[in-house]
Automatic annotation (TrEMBL):
Quaternary data: Component of the cbb3-type cytochrome c oxidase.
Cofactor note: Binds 2 heme C groups per subunit.
Domain Cytochrome c: 127-210, 219-300
Principal location listed in the UniProt entry: membrane
InterPro entries reported in the protein's UniProt record: CcoP_N, CcoP_N_sf, Cyt_c-like_dom, Cyt_c-like_dom_sf, Cyt_c_oxidase_cbb3_su3, Cytochrome_c_Oxidase_Subunit
Originating organism: Lysobacter niastensis
Domain of life assignment: Bacteria
Alphabetical keyword list: Cell inner membrane, Cell membrane, Electron transport, Heme, Hydrogen ion transport, Ion transport, Iron, Membrane, Metal-binding, Oxidoreductase, Repeat, Respiratory chain, Transmembrane, Transmembrane helix, Transport
Pathway: Energy metabolism; oxidative phosphorylation
Coiled coil: none
Protein name in UniProt: Cbb3-type cytochrome c oxidase subunit
């Protein structure tokens, strides 16, 4: 917000400019005693070309004065004199809010047919999916990518792996209210339980969850199993398939949100992770959230896909 001192400074500058323009018009249009006649300048070229010094027409000068009067009226009606808000009280925020309300009203007519519908139902409508894709590209692609395949730390939305549940209601809840996944730091705890190599033992065991045959004659995995059962089983389960109520991912598949390198897994276990999916209820509203949810749903539920068949069986 502009201080009173700066406000008066701006007002003074504007007033000086306006008065200066009026004075300049009056001074340059004034004829003084002794001035030559407009046709008597004594400037000649090529014998028959004469330079005149005729004043501007009165109507032209009056247009300049009218422009100055208009500028004064504009500065009274709109904000332009320091902190003076103008008699109209116009602001960019109000203008933006008015334009947004008008455009939102138009959009609501477009989105109205999908209000309240389940996202799996909406996903059957190609037009709705196209609308959802447009919303996704404007809102979600920053984190999840234009192809929705995610990146390190950002989930792939085009597969059938859902850390928080893949039912229509769970997906919609994720979009509307966001999610916050926290993996605690377990480095010190595990070291206290199993020594300096404890974290690596757990990593070795976790790798066997997606390849049980590798457990055979695997000393490090055998050591890690007891550590896993003492610390990790509470969230990820005995079989390592996770808990969607907690957002605890399955460790028994080949998908790794933060990468599957030993260094990445060591950092995850030792230092923990904190992932946040922002809530979009206030940003998108419920109907647009349903449309973007339908688009995401359609990526992993294409006709004939395993996920699509499973969903149909559940219904």
């Amino acid at each position: 917000m502009m201080t009173q001192g700066w406000s008066w400074w701006v007002i003074a500058i504007v007033a000086i400019n306006l008065v200066g323009c009026v004075w300049l018009l009056w001074w340059t249009g004034k004829r003084r005693p002794g001035d030559p006649k407009p046709t008597d300048t004594s400037h000649y070229w090529d014998g028959d070309i004469t330079e005149y010094n005729k004043p501007l027409p009165k109507w032209w000068i009056n247009l300049f004065y009218i422009t100055i009067v208009f500028a004064i009226g504009y500065l009274i009606y709109y904000p332009g004199l320091g902190a003076f808000a103008g008699v109209s009280k116009w602001t960019q925020q109000k203008e933006h809010a008015t334009d947004k309300a008008r455009d939102d009203q138009k959009l609501e007519k477009t989105f109205a047919p999908y209000a309240g519908k389940s996202i799996d139902v909406i996903a059957r409508d190609p037009k709705a999916v196209a609308l959802g894709r447009s919303i996704f590209n404007n809102t979600c692609a920053t984190c999840h990518g234009s192809s929705a395949q995610g990146a390190i730390g950002y989930p792939n939305l085009s597969d059938d792996i859902w850390h928080w549940g893949g039912s229509p209601d769970r997906v919609l809840q994720t979009v509307l209210d966001g999610r916050e996944g926290v993996m605690p730091e377990w480095g010190k705890v595990l070291t206290g339980m199993g020594g300096d190599n404890a974290v690596d033992y757990v990593i070795a065991y976790v790798r066997t969850l997606s390849a049980p045959a590798s457990m055979e004659n695997n000393f490090m995995a055998a050591q890690g199993k007891s550590l896993y059962n003492g610390v990790c089983v509470a969230c990820h389960g005995v079989d390592g398939k996770g808990n969607q109520e907690l957002g605890a991912p399955s460790l028994a598949d080949d998908y790794w949100l933060y990468g599957n390198s030993t260094e990445s897994l060591r950092q995850t276990i030792s230092s923990g992770r904190h992932g946040t999916m922002p809530a979009h209820r206030q940003i998108l509203g419920e109907t647009r959230a349903r449309l973007v949810g339908a688009y995401v749903w359609s990526l992993s539920h294409k006709p004939g896909s395993t996920a699509s068949k499973a969903s149909a069986e559940q219904q």
